[in-house]
Every structure is written in structure tokens, then in C-alpha cells.
What we know:
Elements: E1 3-5, E2 12-14, E3 18-19, E4 33-37, E5 42-46, E6 50-58, E7 63-68, E8 73-77, E9 89-97, E10 101-107, H1 116-123, H2 130-141, H3 148-159, H4 166-175, H5 181-191, H6 197-212, H7 216-226, H8 232-242, H9 247-252, H10 258-276, H11 281-308, H12 327-345, H13 350-357, H14 363-373, H15 385-395, H16 398-411, H17 422-445, H18 452-473, E11 475-483, E12 486-494, E13 508-516, E14 520-529, E15 533-540, H19 546-561, E16 566-573, H20 580-585
Parallel strand pairs: 15-16
Antiparallel strand pairs: 1-2, 3-10, 4-5, 6-7, 6-9, 7-8, 9-10, 11-12, 12-13, 13-14, 14-15
Helix pairs in contact: 1-2, 2-4, 5-18, 6-7, 6-16, 6-18, 7-17, 8-14, 12-13, 12-15, 12-16, 17-18
Amino acid sequence: xxxxxxxxxxxxxxxxxxxxxxxxxxxxxxxxxxxxxxxxxxxxxxxxxxxxxxxxxxxxxxxxxxxxxxxxxxxxxxxxxxxxxxxxxxxxxxxxxxxxxxxxxxxxxxxxxxxxxxxxxxxxxxxxxxxxxxxxxxxxxxxxxxxxxxxxxxxxxxxxxxxxxxxxxxxxxxxxxxxxxxxxxxxxxxxxxxxxxxxxxxxxxxxxxxxxxxxxxxxxxxxxxxxxxxxxxxxxxxxxxxxxxxxxxxxxxxxxxxxxxxxxxxxxxxxxxxxxxxxxxxxxxxxxxxxxxxxxxxxxxxxxxxxxxxxxxxxxxxxxxxxxxxxxxxxxxxxxxxxxxxxxxxxxxxxxxxxxxxxxxxxxxxxxxxxxxxxxxxxxxxxxxxxxxxxxxxxxxxxxxxxxxxxxxxxxxxxxxxxxxxxxxxxxxxxxxxxxxxxxxxxxxxxxxxxxxxxxxxxxxxxxxxxxxxxxxxxxxxxxxxxxxxxxxxxxxxxxxxxxxxxxxxxxxxxxxxxxxxxxxxxxxxxxxxxxxxxxxxxxxxxxxxxxxxxxxxxxxxxxxxxxxxxxxxxxxxxxxxxxxxxxxxxxxxxxxxxxxxxxxxx
Length: 603
């Protein structure tokens, strides 16, 4: 609804904008504020201002005559969707003001006819603004009192966080979530669906993989934070191998050396026999020469075939959330060859780097070898400047950084089988908190506190803190999972009534939410009654998967019945299922479920 100056009466009429008449109104040309001089009254208008007035007349065409507080009269066309009546108070907010037009928008278009919000704000002596209106409506929707004391108290809280949606402040206050700048930001991120740890790991892993390529010392700092420390046994074996003794390292990685020794012994024996049997020397030599030629030809053919067969990286692992355990699929045969070549130049034995080139070592094993070689300061394990140059080139190479990025993500995800073990979930969050703390410290110490990488780490750390705060008010845990070579998101929420915790009556209901690569979004509602009666309801958003899931439900029921549960499982389709944050932040309208387990992600 917009209003236009009437040049004769000083009244406002309908228009697409508020066009000022130059015949009876003078416009003061200011972008921030426009002064309107009507016939009898002066009205100062700027963006954000709110007009309030009472409807004193209404025509059949829907044109309302509204009296403002300064007794100025305006006329406005009431839209068909807004039900009003004489005596009602309406409010409008100025959305924009220029030297030629003013655009207004109606407030409280969805209120009932008695303008409860406006009356409540007026009674509490609070200005009628869009933010205050949203605050009152949120309090009303959640059944909170809207007396003067309650409104003024909530308004004071909302004023401390002016950038936040007032409804968020109301929700957090009712849910008992501590109000801090970080928590408010996280709460609103959760409401907008921008809260998934599994997705937040991508910029963190990429940023630190790049940092690790800067120098040997930086590589050691990064890998010591994000990767598991190599064992003392491996570190010793690598050090000895780089100094010429590979026996321990070969044994650890299954490098066969007996075959080489047998060949050498056979050659020695052949020479003895040739010397003893002079008469057969020429025949043996001719036969061996022919055999050797055949072997050489075969080796050349095999080598040519391998060189011609260039394996490209699997496109699956170029996706942001991908995590893999196959070196060749991750970096391709050329990437594996590059890693092997640089490792060989750095002093690693050829028999071992050949396994890297063939993809016979996992990405984790390959990184552990390199990490172990850097355990001593500045890579003193490497003999000579050429070897040190090779390792510097190695850690800055794209194949290495890709492997490191992959492994950082893999190490910061939960395995599906760990979810059932509360202690393992707690241990995961303890590790995540420690890693993020050490990562933040490294960024501070290297002058990177204001970088996007630091922001990503801080946001992830705030997310973990927020989960811990949430868990004090409700039972919720986020599950960043490694499933089918992808980082997948999960939520586990037990509808909580803390007072029921001590009753232990055998009743529990929970929601498990999963976002998966192939199955899409899956919600699993589980309800237990009397300790042994379990109902499991799968809710899918992809209709094509209904039969697929239904096929395995009898097997699920059978397996749980073997454990003593009376089972019933079903599956349905709901393409507009609510998100877990939407459910848990708006509890009260839903059936209350009972808490069974409490997670402390920091303890």
C-alpha cells in the first residue's frame, strides 16, 4: 500500500509511490530526510519512520481515511488481503524517501482486528517499529506473556543484538540458550540451514593444506595438528631408511626382498656351475641369453602398456565433500607417479616408492611416511640439498596437497559405527575442539587472524560451542559422518523434557536426520515404549526410493527382534519435511518426547 499527496486537501491517496505535488507541497531535496509541507501540518519523513493512525472512515471502494497523531488526515487504498474497520489503529513504515517520492509499507497486515500488537507496544511505552512488532508476535506465538514488564525486558535483550531477528532472541530466551553474540549468530545460521560441520570442513581442509606447502616447518606444524602422529617405530624406520638401512621399513610395509636375494643366489650358483662344467658353457650361455632377451622384451612390453594406461583421477573425488581411501582414484596415475618420483629423490627407497606409484599404499600410509620423515626439525633426515629441495617440492605439489586435504577431512569425520557409542561421539567432539583450538593458535602465531581461513575456523569452533550450549537445554548432537566416500551430515535430536530424565519409564522418542549422497534426505523417527516396543518410521523426500527402503524394513525388524525388541517399521514420503533446527527451535506445538541420553561435546 502506497500513498500520494493530494494537492488540494493535504490528504494522501493511493499511488505506486508517494509523488509530491509541487502546487501545494514543497520538497526539501535530501536523500536521508524529506520534509513534506501540507496545507496545515508539517510532517518530517525519513526511511524507517513509522506512521500510526486511526481509521475514521471507509468507503465501499476500500479507501480509508486515517487520522494521524498530529491530526493530519491521510487517505489510503486498503488492499483486499487486509481486513480493517473503523476505529482500528494502523501503522506504516517508510521504506524509502527521496526528493520526489516516499514509499510506505503497512505493518501488522496479518494481525487481528483489534491490533493487539500495536496496543501491547503502546501499553508498554515502546515505539511501534517493525522489529518491536516482530518481537511481540514471536512472544504471542510462543505463548509468552506480553505485559509491560515482559515486553520491556525482551526489548532490552533485543536491543543488545540489533542485527539479529527479534524472533531469534525470543526463541533463545524461551529455550534457555545463553545469549551471546556468537550464539545468536549460530542460532540464526541453524535456522537458515547454514550450520553443517561436514560442509564447514571443506574450507578448513583446503586452507591448511595450502599452508602446509609453504615450508617444511609449516608442514610439520599443520600435520601435527590435523593428522595422527606417526608411531615412534615408523619414525625410526623411516630415518634409518633415509640413511641407507631399509630393512625395518620394508618389513612394516610388506616390501618383498627375498625374491631379489634368491635371484642373486641363483646367479652366483649359475656361475659356479658354468665354471665346473666347461663343456656346457656355450650352450648354457646361449640359452640364458635367449631367455634374458625374452624377459627384457616382456618387461619392455609391460612397461609400455603401463605407461600408455594413464588413469585419470575419479571425478567423484573432485566434489567438495568427497573423502577417499584409494590413492589412484584421488590423484590419478600421473599424480601417484609424481609423488613417487619426488619421494624417491628425497631418499625414500625405490621399492617403497614403487608401491606409491602403483597405488598399493593408502593415502594415509603415504602421508604417514612423509610426515615421519619430517619429524626432525627442518627435515634433517634428508641428505643433501637435492633431497631437501625434492621434499619441499613434494609438500607443495598438487597431488600431495590433495591427499592432505582429503585426509584432514577424513580425520574430522565420524565413522557410522561410532555413532552408536556415546563415548566415541564425545571423544570425537573432544578431538574436534582440540584441533580447532590448536589451529586457531597457529593462525594467530603466523599473523593470519584476519584471514578467511581464520574466520572459517572460528565459525566452526563457535558451532561446536553452540552445540554444547544447546545440549544444556535439549538433547541434540550433530553427526558429521563419513559415508560412501562422502562427508555426510546428520542430526540426532531427542525431544527433551529434562524433568522426565530421572523417571526412566522406558519411553523415548528421537529423530535421526541424514543427508546422504545417493538416498538424499532421510528422517528416521524412532519411538520406544515400555523399554521394548519400538516403532521406526522412515520419511523420504525422493519417491523413487520408497520401494528400495521398504524392501529392507523386514530385515531391520528381524535383526532388532533378535535383540528382544517388538518392532514395527514403515516408510512414507514427505517432500516438505521440516528441518531438525526448525523442529527443536519451535518445540511446544509438537508432542513432547522424552530424553534418554545426554551428550556433552566438550567434557
